[in-house]
Design a protein that fits this description.
With 78 residues, the chain is an all-alpha fold. 68% of the residues lie in helices and 0% in strands.
């Protein structure tokens, strides 16, 4: 499943297999987008606290999830 329209139809349909596959695809997309934007925020100098507030999660949660993936050029390690 790839197209947004296809996902929307599948997610709203009555076939549980198709609906669950659509939910999986959407979850993967959301994770990818979140990761991309965390990287963007860190490159622009955002603190872990600022990112956490934007995502409405704790600073510890966002740091635990993303800190290990950052490059050596990370502007802040707070």
């Amino acid at each position: 499943m790839s197209g947004a329209a296809e996902l929307a139809v599948a997610a709203g349909g009555t076939d549980p297999r198709a609906g669950l596959r659509a939910a999986l695809a959407l979850r993967r997309l959301a994770e990818t987008l979140e990761s991309l934007q965390v990287d963007n925020a860190r490159r622009q100098g955002w603190s872990w606290q600022e990112i956490a507030q934007a995502l409405e999660i704790s600073k510890q949660a966002v740091h635990k999830k993303y800190a290990g993936r950052l490059s050596a050029t990370d502007p802040k390690e707070d």
